[in-house]
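PROTEIN DESIGN WORKSHEET
SECTION A - STRUCTURE
LENGTH: 503
TOKENS:
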């Protein structure tokens, strides 16, 4: 049985119905992973022997009608996430000998649910950038176009899932690190509310802004993974809320949503803007009540960078030689962090409350808990660059390099945010839309995302820009799995949209 185009949910149904074994599924996944590894380089560590042992145990459970909700499903986790006995370098040569003796709570939950971890995915050094390249692991490229970045810092995860090397991957998001690669690779990336997913034990840096979350090709698969790693806590009953929404899903008809295509200040390319407007038109046609508003804030990049880099340096500085052996980009970040005073850090932390208050006010004045924006204002740029030179007419310059403006607020406030594909841009690369809500509304955000996914009608089959077109393919056929035909249709559709929206 070919598992390549199936979702996680479909594969789990096959396993439970004994149409395939966990060992068979793993070997198919490893075969695909080897091709993807050679072509796009998304893996930092391969754990095939460990995975084979886990798959054999899963088969024993499945034969008895037992096993958790992910029993036998091959998945990946991020390089920076702890798995006892496995190196956790965070893509830094300075950490290459670090082997944790404990497993992160989120990763442990996945294994307890029966997931089979077959590899760890690449990230940039210390997860500090929105692209994925390091001297330790090299460059990870985009399965839509090998000349383009996959995004970061969970870039290997985005590439692996988009290219079909596993249906699920655990990412981590402290400043868009799940949502950026999800956007660039054309998949779903969900950053849960802060503390919805237990992380410790883990690297201590960025402890107040990072959330671990699922990366998948469908919202339903992302929800499944989230349902395993999330936990009720003193603030919110995340699992109870998920169960309630499963029994009574939301409909777009009559649903009120707040829309902003640029937050009032974010740079955005024309193809992103026009495609976003087309999605908004589909929302209206589906019966949603659309209101246009935003939190009336400037970009939060300064507050985010000040908090994140000060925090990064505060842990690095205690090492014997804190700057030795670092890559230049990491060294620049550390140097910036070292220059921030405690007073500047405190001011940035205080500003987080102002951001939270502004979002609360926006939701309250509109009597609504859904906020929809683009995820990014640009398609994936060349992987030889650390950032795009322009977004729209805005030149991206130092010191802030603010090309991911839509990202920071969700991390600074702890809000849930789901990135999902909304179409292809002028260069045939994925564009993405982001659904956010107040902290604790994770189930609602995923529910709206799934309804919107149906309206958009995205082809979620694995992508492979290195594959040759089939010799016997008919370009006039509706071959939704052919990337070349999809790109042609996307350009034609975008031209049609421009004509429609401009009327």
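SECTION B - SEQUENCE
RESIDUE ASSIGNMENT:
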């Amino acid at each position: 049985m070919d598992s390549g185009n199936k979702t996680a949910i479909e594969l789990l149904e096959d396993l439970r119905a004994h149409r395939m074994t966990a060992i068979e599924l793993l070997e198919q996944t490893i075969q695909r992973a080897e091709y993807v590894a050679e072509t796009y380089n998304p893996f930092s560590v391969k754990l095939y022997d460990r995975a084979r042992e886990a798959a054999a145990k899963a088969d024993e459970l499945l034969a008895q009608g037992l096993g958790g909700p992910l029993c036998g499903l091959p998945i990946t986790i991020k390089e920076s996430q702890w798995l006892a006995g496995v190196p956790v370098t965070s893509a830094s040569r300075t950490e290459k000998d670090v082997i944790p003796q404990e497993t992160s709570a989120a990763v442990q939950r996945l294994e307890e649910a029966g997931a089979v971890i077959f590899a760890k995915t690449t990230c940039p050094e210390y997860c500090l950038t929105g692209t994925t390249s390091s001297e330790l692991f090299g460059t990870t490229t985009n399965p839509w176009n090998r000349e383009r970045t996959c995004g970061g810092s969970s870039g290997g995860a985005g590439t692996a899932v988009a290219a079909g090397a596993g249906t699920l991957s655990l990412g981590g998001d402290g400043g868009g690190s799940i949502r950026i690669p999800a956007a660039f690779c054309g998949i779903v990336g969900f950053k849960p509310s802060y503390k919805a997913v237990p992380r410790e034990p883990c690297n201590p840096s960025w402890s107040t802004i990072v959330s671990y979350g699922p990366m998948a090709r469908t919202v339903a698969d992302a929800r499944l993974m989230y349902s395993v790693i999330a936990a009720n806590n003193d603030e919110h009953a995340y699992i109870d809320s998920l169960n309630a929404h499963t029994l009574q899903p939301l409909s777009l008809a009559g649903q009120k949503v707040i829309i902003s295509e640029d937050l009032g200040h974010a740079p955005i390319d024309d193809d992103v803007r026009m495609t976003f407007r087309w999605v908004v038109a589909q929302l209206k046609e589906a019966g949603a009540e659309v209101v246009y508003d935003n939190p009336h804030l400037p970009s939060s990049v300064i507050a985010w960078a000040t908090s994140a880099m000060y925090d990064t340096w505060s842990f690095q500085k205690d090492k014997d030689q804190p700057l030795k052996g670092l890559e230049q980009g990491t060294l620049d970040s550390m140097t910036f962090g070292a220059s921030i005073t405690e007073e500047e850090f405190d001011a940035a932390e205080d500003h987080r409350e102002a951001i939270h208050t502004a979002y609360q006010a926006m939701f309250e004045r509109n009597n609504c808990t859904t906020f929809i924006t683009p995820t990014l204002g640009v398609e994936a740029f060349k992987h030889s660059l650390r950032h795009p030179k322009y977004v729209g007419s805005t030149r991206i310059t130092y010191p802030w390099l603010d090309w991911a403006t839509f990202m920071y607020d969700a991390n600074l406030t702890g809000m849930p945010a789901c990135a999902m594909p909304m179409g292809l841009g002028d260069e045939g690369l994925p564009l993405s839309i982001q659904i956010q809500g107040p902290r604790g509304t994770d189930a609602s955000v995923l529910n709206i995302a799934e309804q919107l996914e149906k309206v958009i009608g995205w082809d979620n089959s694995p992508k492979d820009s290195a594959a040759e077109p089939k010799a016997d393919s008919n370009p006039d056929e509706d071959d939704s799995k052919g990337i070349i035909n999809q790109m042609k249709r996307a350009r034609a559709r975008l031209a049609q949209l421009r004509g429609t929206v401009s009327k």
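SECTION C - NOTES
The chain has 15 helices and 17 strands.
Residues 275 and 494 are 7 Å apart (CA to CA).
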